[in-house]
Specification:
two-stranded antiparallel sheet, 62 residues, 39% strand, mainly beta
Length: 62
Amino acid sequence: MALSAICTHQGCTVVADGDELSCPCHGSVFDLTGKNVSGPAPEPLPPVEVHVADGAVLPGKA
């Protein structure tokens, strides 16, 4: 399982910032489980199904 990289506030792409994920657009911050830590985002980052094939992480089930 992975997390969506799309902020639930206004759809900007979050970036890794140490042990958190930060939205550069409006300052929302999420922990590595996707939970909101601070900022205007109304919801946590949703999980995304992934699988590993030949060493690559790919979306969806295998």
